[in-house]
Amino acid sequence: MKHFYKIFIQGGNHMRKCSIVVILFITSLLMTGTISYAINQGHITPEEGSILINNTPNIIIIDVRDCTEFKIEHFNNAINIPIGVFEERISEIPYGSSVLLYCIRGIRSWRAMEILLESRPDLKVYHIFGVPVFTQ
Q1: Among 124, 72, 131, 76, which residue's Cα sits nearest to residue 102?
Q2: Among 13, 57, 94, 113, whose CB has the most other CB atoms within 10 angstroms?
Q3: Cα(95)–Cα(34) distance, integer angstroms
């Protein structure tokens, strides 16, 4: 705790300048809508993902993990398009589909979602942020 006190309370001008930069950065994200865009643009919890799978007929479930991870465990009816080849294979996704992306924590699926949102505005895209619940 003493170390924390020294850094943040006694840190002097450098720490105050860093704090101001961080505050300005967060403020700019809020003002441009970047944070609200990320929060509202298809990010769902693992539990919401399970509900979406059960309540959305014809949803396309895409596992963006590598083939080895996919073979160990995956959602029923999921297809495997690893993030490393995702951009090359997005044409395989039917026009106007609802798509659920997942990996094991949500980082790769978030990247896949960004790719789809940029290149395929016809799709309704969701991604599970967190560890998926594979039981359906």
Answers
A1: 131
A2: 113
A3: 27
Residue 112 domain boundaries: 42-128
How many Å is the maximal CA-CA distance in the chain?
Answer: 58
The verdict on residue 135 lying in a domain is no
Q: Are 45 and 129 within 8 A, CB to CB?
A: yes
Closest to 99 measured CA to CA, from 130, 120, 69: 120
State if pTM tops 0.85: no
CATH number of the domain to which 59 belongs: 3.40.250.10
Condensed to tens digits (0 to 9), the pLDDT of residues 48-66 reads 998 999 999 899 999 999 9
Asked if residue 69 belongs to a domain, the reply is: yes
- Name every residue whose Cβ is closer than 8 Å to that of residue 134 and which is 6 or more positions away in sequence: 73, 74, 75
